[in-house]
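Form 7-S
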Amino acid sequence: MTFLRIKASVAAVVGFVSLAAAAQAADELVWKFEEGQTNRYRMQQTMDMAMKVGGNNVESNVDQTIDMSWTVKDVNDEGVATLEQRIERMRMTIAAGGQETKIDTASNDEPQGQAAMIKPLLDAMTSGAFIVTMTPRGEITDVEVPEKMVEALKNSPGAAMMGELMSAEGFKKMISQASLVLPENLEAGKTWSRKMEMKIPAIGTQVAETTYTYRGPKEVEGEEYEAFGVEIKVSYQDGAAIEVTEQASSGEILFNREAGRLEQSNLKQNMDLKITVGNQTMEQEMEQTMEMKWVPEGNDE
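Output:
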């Protein structure tokens, strides 16, 4: 399922922007931007899939580690910041059909087999910086995608079938729609939602609705953070080839008030899907976990 693996790689980056934007709260809770400041993060993502095809069970697993950085280029008088976001390194392990494929953008080894098809896209994603304009509340008003990535997206296998998902405009749309914009007044227990839509010709329209709940202060290992609950609900519309028959998700975002940054986040998502291709119907179970943590300087192995 190459489509789902590439989609997971792209979604992981967007997920980072979405969760990191939670730190851009209004009034008392804000991201503290300072020109020249760099925050580094490491995201670890695991996706387990089991598909029933013609009475046979096909299982696969994808593990990803993504190292990223945010550097503040400037901050204007209204507190709107220009951020240079870089994907420094991507590592992926794919296990399927009794075979294991490893991909590392930091490696100079010539990729073979499936890795040769996927690595060019991952290399492009680490080749340049996104320039993101963000307000103090977390509204993303502009996104510039590196030209090399734009070309890599266009030339990726199956790009036409993946529609907006594999285009520069689609990437901008995902980043902008996925960001969390907090209300001006926060109260413990307050809940709000935001939707992201993406048209994918091979599938239909995917709608992801993320619901956030402000939980208030939380102490973790002697440190106090502001905590947000996160849930995601996915559906497919417009005669989509995929139907979500069952799903559940839960997660949490922790924000370091004193430092003015996202400290860590986690999300677990389970989905049962029914996929129809022609006259054939397949059932798939997916379990995905994602964890992101702020990485101190010098601790980025």
